[in-house]
Amino acid sequence: MRDAAYRSRLQNLCATGLFLAALATLYGLAQAEETDKTKTDKKADKPALVIKPTGPMTLKMTITSSGSDVAEVSKLIDEKLEAEWKANNVTPSHFIDDYEFIRRASLDIIGRVAKPEEIARYLKDPPEKRRSLLIDRLLAHEDYARHWANMWTNWLLTRAGVFGRGKYHDQMNGWLKDQFASNRPLSEIVTKLITAKGKNSENGAVNFLLAHVGENIPNARVKEEGQFEMVPATSRIARIFLGTQIQCAQCHPHPFSNGLKQEMFWGINGFLRQVKREGQPPNPNMNNAMLAPSDLTLLDDPTVNPDANVFFELRSGKIKMWNAEFLPPPGKERGPRLDPKKTGIERREELARYVIEHEMFAKAMVNRIWGLFFGRGFVNPIDDFNDNNQPSNPDLLNTLAERFRHYGYDQHKLIRWITHSQAYHRSYVANPSNDKPEQEVLFSRMVMKSLSPEQLFESLVTSTQAEAGEDPKKRKELRDRWLGSLVTNFGDDEGNEVTFNGTIVQALLMMNGRDINEAISRPGKGTVAMAMAKRGANLNSVVTDLFLATLNRPPRKQELLDIQKKLPLKTGTKDDLKAAYEDLLWALLNSNEYLLNH
After folding, report:
1. Pair 236, 495: CB distance under 8 Å
2. Which of 73, 88, 288, 405 could form a disulfide with 417 if both were Cys (CB 3.0 to 4.6 A apart)?
3. Longest dimension (CA), the chain
4. pLDDT tens per residue, range 373-414
């Protein structure tokens, strides 16, 4: 905070009720849209929320994307969801307006809020075509590859540890950017990740397996069993690509999946036992973690583990030997076994083929991406399919998985199907028929999502027109410092993050962060300075520019009145006026409406 007057103005602004406290974890803007905040339900003797629908109840959208599949599959999504709503006596929430849609779609597809000029272009398009045209533009945008590379890098390497940050993380991120920029099929990307070889300075994909090799096998057993146990890699391959938390079967039969036995974990593990690493990454527990990471090479050593066997301990304490063997198909006791004559990279190529051909691959990919767009998957958590965690709409999931497989695992198509469905255009605002948490599985309203650190960073740079955003090197330095403040640098033995600090910490850092205050106060080119230069003394126009740059919508009439009353925008010097606008921008950036994707 700059001074007492600054704090006072912010307190006055928050007191208007326009923005809820920045540390709140629930988005409160809907309160302004309620007819009666609460009333008593005499039958149930419980308060019931009555919300007046504020958006359109019908949505007319002309699909501009080429190919009949978009219209066909998006309609199929809506029909299957509507059948569930009818069966459960649920009325879906109203549709969002165009401003809400461009913000939602921009955050979901390119990982940041929209720019004012992007909103202006969007609104110039014919009303019935603009949403479909926007989806096409976002999929073709250069930020699309950056956003999806960020997400997949974090899923594959996490944000923690030696591979979760810095050089190795950047190598993977760069490789993934190239894949998503070319819209490579997800099946091809996953195959490359499992079969990658060479130096990580030349092929960032090798860092996926290099990050998860696990413990060294004692020298006396390397010839028979391989260089590394490859336990984390086994878990991660099944979890990310098959939606199966097979690590639960490492030491005993899976407690929630009757068909997942201990042998199945070690059967997959056997495909990876000829993996070899050249070079040594820094040890995060030693002083050398501060050293610059050296180049690493991923190879396969055909001279070790010649029989493709693994040894593991049963609960009884006995040691059991098992062949490299993939998961069995439904109804079968045994899966396809690896021919030990196949050595080196052939073993991983065989594993990749089995992963892609498995029925769970398409389901896991669809469920993961659906969860990103709707705030939850058909199965939640998105990577934990098991007997006690069945899909909420298995027919729709199976159908989407089948279509996804048919169209070559094309992520652009899957995104188009999802975002052209009318369900994706529904509001987060609940009504009495769909306001229960357990009804979220019906997807009759949108589930609000906290922005990821990467989404928040990119949105802040966009909204403030920060100077760091103009220089790639400065942008990366700022981004690394920002993410380092948000993510707890701890991981477990499976390579998972233990803690990710979300919305509350984000808000604290934003309110007290030097970088944010400098970006807000940036002279000449900052959002406030440019709005004042463009709009002059027109208060409403400047405020509108600030709202569009942050919340991607114009202010409401009552919001303008509150701002005029609570901030000294009509008196004082030009510097006083600039400071007041900066306070407003600060408050908008720290509002729950900004911190959440709704």
Report:
1. yes
2. 73
3. 84
4. 999 999 999 898 888 889 999 999 999 999 999 999 999 999
From 217, 216, 190, 215, select the one nearest 205 (Cα to Cα). 190
Contact indicator for 311, 323 with CB cutoff of 8 Å:
no
For the chain, give every domain's residue range: 4-27+453-461+498-597, 52-140+362-382+392-447, 145-357
Average pLDDT score, the chain? 84
Phi, psi values for residue 405, rounded to 5°: -65, -45
Whether pTM > 0.90 for this model: the answer is no
Taking the C-alpha atoms of residue 543 and residue 414, their distance in angstroms, rounded to an integer, is 38
Closest CA to 267 of 310, 307, 299, 305: 310
CA proximity to 183, closest of 206, 221, 223, 149:
149
Share of the chain above pLDDT 90, in %: 57
Q: Measuring CA to CA, how many Å separate 570 from each of 10, 562, 576?
A: 17, 13, 10
Q: Is it the case that residue 43 has pLDDT exceeding 50?
A: no
First to last CA, the chain: 29
The rounded distance, in Å, linking the Cα atoms of 96 and 437 is 20
Of 147, 21, 196, nearest to 591 (Cα)?
21
pLDDT at residue 559 greater than cutoff 50: yes
pLDDT tens per residue across span 469-478: 677 888 888 8
Q: What is residue 432's three-state secondary structure?
A: coil
Structure tokens at 75: 């309609």
- Cβ atoms of residues 592 and 550 within 8 Å: no
At residue 525, what is the residue type? K
Please name the helix (run of DSSP H) or strand (run of DSSP E) that holds residue 203, with its range, or none. Answer: none
The tokens of 312 are what? Answer: 């593991």
Q: What is the pLDDT of residue 587?
A: 87
How far are the Cα atoms of 157, 208, 315 from residue 190, in angstroms, in the given order? 14, 10, 33
- For 521-546, write each residue's pLDDT tens digit: 888 788 998 998 887 778 889 999 99
Question: Does residue 278 contact residue 176 with C-beta atoms inside 8 Å?
Answer: no
